[in-house]
Design goal:
Layout (H helix, E strand, L loop, with lengths): L2 E2 L11 E4 L13 H13 L7 H14 L5 H14 L7 H24 L13 H10 L3 E9 H10 L10 E4 L8 H10 L8 E5 L2 H9 L3 E5 L11 H10 L3 E3 L5 H9 L7
Parallel strand pairs: 2-3, 2-5, 3-4, 5-6, 6-7
Antiparallel strand pairs: 1-7
Helix pairs in contact: 1-2, 3-4
Length: 273
Protein backbone atom coordinates (compact mmCIF):
# COMPACT_ATOMS: atom_id res chain seq x y z
CA UNK A 1 0.00 0.00 0.00
CA UNK A 2 3.05 2.23 0.43
CA UNK A 3 4.31 3.55 -2.90
CA UNK A 4 7.80 5.01 -3.10
CA UNK A 5 7.78 7.52 -5.95
CA UNK A 6 11.35 8.76 -5.44
CA UNK A 7 13.68 5.83 -4.58
CA UNK A 8 16.19 7.98 -2.69
CA UNK A 9 13.55 9.59 -0.47
CA UNK A 10 14.67 10.29 3.08
CA UNK A 11 13.56 12.46 5.99
CA UNK A 12 16.44 11.59 8.31
CA UNK A 13 17.24 15.30 8.71
CA UNK A 14 13.63 16.26 9.48
CA UNK A 15 13.02 18.44 12.51
CA UNK A 16 9.60 19.85 11.57
CA UNK A 17 6.50 18.10 10.24
CA UNK A 18 3.63 19.98 8.62
CA UNK A 19 0.24 18.29 8.40
CA UNK A 20 -2.69 19.31 6.29
CA UNK A 21 -5.96 18.58 8.11
CA UNK A 22 -8.96 17.58 5.97
CA UNK A 23 -8.28 14.33 4.13
CA UNK A 24 -4.83 14.04 5.68
CA UNK A 25 -5.88 13.50 9.29
CA UNK A 26 -9.55 14.41 9.54
CA UNK A 27 -12.45 12.74 7.75
CA UNK A 28 -15.07 15.03 9.25
CA UNK A 29 -15.33 16.89 5.95
CA UNK A 30 -14.94 13.81 3.78
CA UNK A 31 -16.90 14.29 0.57
CA UNK A 32 -16.40 18.06 0.45
CA UNK A 33 -15.51 17.89 -3.24
CA UNK A 34 -18.85 16.19 -3.90
CA UNK A 35 -20.40 19.39 -2.54
CA UNK A 36 -18.11 22.01 -4.05
CA UNK A 37 -17.77 20.63 -7.58
CA UNK A 38 -21.53 20.25 -8.26
CA UNK A 39 -22.17 23.69 -6.78
CA UNK A 40 -19.61 25.26 -9.12
CA UNK A 41 -20.96 23.35 -12.12
CA UNK A 42 -24.46 24.53 -11.19
CA UNK A 43 -23.32 28.16 -11.17
CA UNK A 44 -21.60 27.83 -14.56
CA UNK A 45 -24.24 25.75 -16.30
CA UNK A 46 -26.87 28.33 -15.37
CA UNK A 47 -25.18 30.94 -17.55
CA UNK A 48 -26.62 29.50 -20.74
CA UNK A 49 -23.32 29.14 -22.59
CA UNK A 50 -24.33 25.81 -24.08
CA UNK A 51 -21.63 23.94 -22.18
CA UNK A 52 -22.87 20.64 -20.80
CA UNK A 53 -22.30 19.57 -17.19
CA UNK A 54 -20.02 16.85 -18.59
CA UNK A 55 -17.91 19.52 -20.30
CA UNK A 56 -17.85 21.76 -17.25
CA UNK A 57 -16.89 19.05 -14.75
CA UNK A 58 -13.18 18.80 -15.73
CA UNK A 59 -12.98 22.60 -15.86
CA UNK A 60 -14.23 22.84 -12.30
CA UNK A 61 -12.24 19.87 -11.05
CA UNK A 62 -9.09 21.46 -12.42
CA UNK A 63 -9.33 24.68 -10.43
CA UNK A 64 -10.76 23.00 -7.33
CA UNK A 65 -7.89 20.50 -7.26
CA UNK A 66 -5.22 23.06 -8.16
CA UNK A 67 -6.27 25.20 -5.20
CA UNK A 68 -6.92 22.37 -2.74
CA UNK A 69 -4.97 23.10 0.40
CA UNK A 70 -5.24 26.86 -0.04
CA UNK A 71 -7.90 28.84 1.76
CA UNK A 72 -11.39 27.97 0.48
CA UNK A 73 -11.90 31.53 -0.69
CA UNK A 74 -9.36 30.96 -3.49
CA UNK A 75 -11.55 28.27 -5.04
CA UNK A 76 -14.47 30.66 -4.82
CA UNK A 77 -12.37 33.37 -6.49
CA UNK A 78 -11.68 30.92 -9.30
CA UNK A 79 -15.42 30.22 -9.60
CA UNK A 80 -16.16 33.95 -9.79
CA UNK A 81 -13.51 34.31 -12.50
CA UNK A 82 -14.98 31.39 -14.47
CA UNK A 83 -18.42 33.00 -14.28
CA UNK A 84 -17.03 36.33 -15.49
CA UNK A 85 -15.11 34.66 -18.31
CA UNK A 86 -18.42 33.28 -19.57
CA UNK A 87 -20.09 36.65 -19.62
CA UNK A 88 -21.92 36.24 -16.32
CA UNK A 89 -22.11 38.62 -13.40
CA UNK A 90 -20.36 36.76 -10.59
CA UNK A 91 -21.25 36.99 -6.94
CA UNK A 92 -18.55 38.04 -4.53
CA UNK A 93 -16.27 35.11 -3.65
CA UNK A 94 -17.38 35.38 -0.02
CA UNK A 95 -20.99 34.82 -1.11
CA UNK A 96 -20.01 31.69 -3.04
CA UNK A 97 -18.06 30.53 0.01
CA UNK A 98 -21.10 30.94 2.25
CA UNK A 99 -23.22 29.02 -0.25
CA UNK A 100 -20.69 26.20 -0.27
CA UNK A 101 -20.27 26.08 3.51
CA UNK A 102 -24.04 26.04 4.03
CA UNK A 103 -24.32 23.03 1.73
CA UNK A 104 -21.32 21.32 3.32
CA UNK A 105 -22.80 21.81 6.77
CA UNK A 106 -25.84 19.74 5.85
CA UNK A 107 -23.44 16.88 5.09
CA UNK A 108 -21.23 17.13 8.16
CA UNK A 109 -23.54 18.44 10.88
CA UNK A 110 -24.38 14.96 12.16
CA UNK A 111 -20.68 14.06 12.26
CA UNK A 112 -19.85 17.09 14.37
CA UNK A 113 -22.79 16.43 16.66
CA UNK A 114 -21.87 12.78 17.18
CA UNK A 115 -18.31 13.71 18.09
CA UNK A 116 -19.48 16.45 20.41
CA UNK A 117 -21.96 14.27 22.30
CA UNK A 118 -19.60 11.29 22.43
CA UNK A 119 -21.73 8.93 20.36
CA UNK A 120 -18.87 8.67 17.84
CA UNK A 121 -15.23 8.14 18.72
CA UNK A 122 -12.53 10.43 17.34
CA UNK A 123 -10.97 7.41 15.64
CA UNK A 124 -14.05 7.00 13.46
CA UNK A 125 -13.24 10.30 11.76
CA UNK A 126 -9.46 10.00 11.53
CA UNK A 127 -7.54 8.57 8.57
CA UNK A 128 -6.57 5.07 9.81
CA UNK A 129 -3.28 5.08 11.68
CA UNK A 130 -3.24 8.85 12.22
CA UNK A 131 -2.87 8.75 16.00
CA UNK A 132 -0.11 6.17 15.88
CA UNK A 133 1.74 8.30 13.32
CA UNK A 134 1.40 11.45 15.41
CA UNK A 135 2.59 9.61 18.52
CA UNK A 136 5.55 8.19 16.60
CA UNK A 137 6.63 11.55 15.23
CA UNK A 138 6.32 13.21 18.61
CA UNK A 139 8.42 10.45 20.21
CA UNK A 140 11.11 11.21 17.66
CA UNK A 141 11.27 14.75 19.01
CA UNK A 142 9.88 16.35 15.86
CA UNK A 143 7.90 19.59 16.07
CA UNK A 144 4.46 19.22 14.50
CA UNK A 145 2.41 21.91 12.77
CA UNK A 146 -1.19 21.66 11.60
CA UNK A 147 -2.02 23.95 8.68
CA UNK A 148 -5.35 23.99 6.86
CA UNK A 149 -7.23 25.97 4.24
CA UNK A 150 -10.40 25.54 6.32
CA UNK A 151 -11.37 28.51 8.49
CA UNK A 152 -9.23 28.84 11.61
CA UNK A 153 -12.03 28.53 14.16
CA UNK A 154 -13.38 25.38 12.49
CA UNK A 155 -9.96 23.72 12.27
CA UNK A 156 -9.28 24.34 15.95
CA UNK A 157 -12.73 23.09 16.96
CA UNK A 158 -12.55 19.96 14.81
CA UNK A 159 -8.97 19.17 15.85
CA UNK A 160 -10.11 19.34 19.47
CA UNK A 161 -13.07 17.05 18.75
CA UNK A 162 -10.65 14.54 17.21
CA UNK A 163 -8.32 14.87 20.22
CA UNK A 164 -5.27 15.72 18.12
CA UNK A 165 -4.61 19.29 19.31
CA UNK A 166 -2.23 17.97 21.97
CA UNK A 167 0.23 16.87 19.30
CA UNK A 168 0.53 20.40 17.93
CA UNK A 169 0.23 22.56 21.06
CA UNK A 170 -0.38 26.12 19.81
CA UNK A 171 0.77 25.33 16.28
CA UNK A 172 -2.70 24.86 14.75
CA UNK A 173 -3.44 27.24 11.88
CA UNK A 174 -6.43 27.75 9.60
CA UNK A 175 -7.65 30.29 7.09
CA UNK A 176 -8.08 33.91 8.21
CA UNK A 177 -10.01 36.74 6.59
CA UNK A 178 -6.75 38.55 5.91
CA UNK A 179 -5.04 36.29 3.38
CA UNK A 180 -1.72 38.03 3.97
CA UNK A 181 -1.51 36.91 7.59
CA UNK A 182 -1.37 33.15 7.14
CA UNK A 183 -1.08 30.53 4.43
CA UNK A 184 0.85 27.30 4.03
CA UNK A 185 3.34 29.13 1.84
CA UNK A 186 3.82 31.76 4.55
CA UNK A 187 4.33 29.03 7.17
CA UNK A 188 6.99 27.28 5.10
CA UNK A 189 8.70 30.59 4.38
CA UNK A 190 8.75 31.50 8.07
CA UNK A 191 10.14 28.12 9.10
CA UNK A 192 13.00 28.46 6.63
CA UNK A 193 13.67 32.20 6.69
CA UNK A 194 12.86 33.02 10.32
CA UNK A 195 12.89 29.65 12.08
CA UNK A 196 16.44 28.75 11.19
CA UNK A 197 15.47 25.52 9.42
CA UNK A 198 17.04 24.13 6.29
CA UNK A 199 14.62 22.97 3.59
CA UNK A 200 15.55 19.32 4.07
CA UNK A 201 14.50 19.59 7.72
CA UNK A 202 10.85 19.86 6.64
CA UNK A 203 8.54 16.89 6.17
CA UNK A 204 4.94 17.30 5.02
CA UNK A 205 1.89 15.04 4.96
CA UNK A 206 -0.92 16.25 2.71
CA UNK A 207 -3.65 15.30 0.26
CA UNK A 208 -3.54 18.54 -1.68
CA UNK A 209 -1.34 20.22 -4.24
CA UNK A 210 -0.38 23.29 -2.21
CA UNK A 211 1.33 21.83 0.84
CA UNK A 212 3.23 19.30 -1.28
CA UNK A 213 4.45 21.94 -3.71
CA UNK A 214 5.49 24.46 -1.06
CA UNK A 215 7.61 21.99 0.92
CA UNK A 216 9.18 20.55 -2.21
CA UNK A 217 10.13 24.06 -3.35
CA UNK A 218 12.51 24.37 -0.39
CA UNK A 219 13.89 20.84 -0.69
CA UNK A 220 11.77 19.07 1.92
CA UNK A 221 10.17 15.62 1.87
CA UNK A 222 6.53 15.08 0.95
CA UNK A 223 4.14 12.22 1.72
CA UNK A 224 1.02 12.35 -0.42
CA UNK A 225 -2.13 10.95 1.17
CA UNK A 226 -4.24 9.57 -1.68
CA UNK A 227 -7.06 7.97 0.29
CA UNK A 228 -10.18 6.56 -1.32
CA UNK A 229 -12.50 8.12 1.25
CA UNK A 230 -14.24 7.52 3.52
CA UNK A 231 -12.91 4.00 4.14
CA UNK A 232 -9.31 5.01 3.32
CA UNK A 233 -8.28 1.39 2.70
CA UNK A 234 -7.24 1.84 -0.92
CA UNK A 235 -5.44 4.42 -3.03
CA UNK A 236 -7.55 6.84 -5.05
CA UNK A 237 -5.92 6.87 -8.49
CA UNK A 238 -7.19 10.37 -9.34
CA UNK A 239 -5.59 11.79 -6.19
CA UNK A 240 -2.46 9.68 -6.65
CA UNK A 241 -1.67 11.05 -10.10
CA UNK A 242 -2.17 14.62 -9.02
CA UNK A 243 -0.12 14.30 -5.85
CA UNK A 244 2.74 12.76 -7.81
CA UNK A 245 2.55 15.62 -10.31
CA UNK A 246 2.76 18.04 -7.36
CA UNK A 247 6.00 16.39 -6.24
CA UNK A 248 5.05 13.77 -3.64
CA UNK A 249 7.95 11.45 -2.77
CA UNK A 250 5.73 8.76 -1.21
CA UNK A 251 2.06 7.90 -1.70
CA UNK A 252 -0.05 6.26 1.02
CA UNK A 253 -3.80 5.60 1.39
CA UNK A 254 -3.49 5.66 5.19
CA UNK A 255 -0.88 5.22 7.92
CA UNK A 256 -1.47 1.60 8.88
CA UNK A 257 1.85 0.51 7.35
CA UNK A 258 3.62 2.75 9.84
CA UNK A 259 6.62 0.47 10.31
CA UNK A 260 7.34 0.46 6.58
CA UNK A 261 6.72 4.19 6.26
CA UNK A 262 8.99 4.99 9.19
CA UNK A 263 11.70 2.70 7.83
CA UNK A 264 11.68 4.55 4.51
CA UNK A 265 11.62 8.02 6.04
CA UNK A 266 13.85 7.54 9.05
CA UNK A 267 16.19 4.66 8.23
CA UNK A 268 19.24 4.85 10.42
CA UNK A 269 17.79 7.16 13.07
CA UNK A 270 17.76 4.41 15.68
CA UNK A 271 14.07 4.83 16.51
CA UNK A 272 11.65 2.12 15.46
CA UNK A 273 7.95 2.45 14.74
Amino acid sequence: MLEIVRPDVSATKARVVIFDFDGTLSLIRSGWMDVMVPMCIEQLSGLGTGESEKTLKPVVEDFVWRLTGKETIYQMMALAEAVGDRGGQPLKPAEYKKMYLDRLWTRIESRISSLRDGSASPESYLVPGSRELLENLRERGLTLYLASGTDDANVKDEAALLDVTKYFDDRVYGALDDLNVFSKAILVRRLVADGGHQGDELLVFGDGYVEIEEVKKVGGTAVGVASAEPECRATDEWKRKRLISAGADIIVPNYEDLSDLAAVLFAGTGVTA
